[in-house]
Amino acid sequence: MKKFAVIAAAATVMLSMLVACSGKQKSGTVNTDGSTSMADVMGALTESFREKEPDITVNYSGTGSGSGISGVLDGTCDIGLSSRELKQEEMDQGAVAHVVALDGVAVVVNPKNTAADLTTEQIADIFTGKVTNWSELGGEDAPIAVYGREDGSGTRSAFEEIVGVEGTCTYTNEYGSTGDVIGNVASNENAIGYASLSAVDSSVSAVKVNGVAPSEATVKDGSYTIQRPFVMVTKDGTTLSEAAQAFLDFASSEAAAASITAAGAVYPN
Question: 0.90 exceeded by the pTM?
Answer without folding.
Answer: no
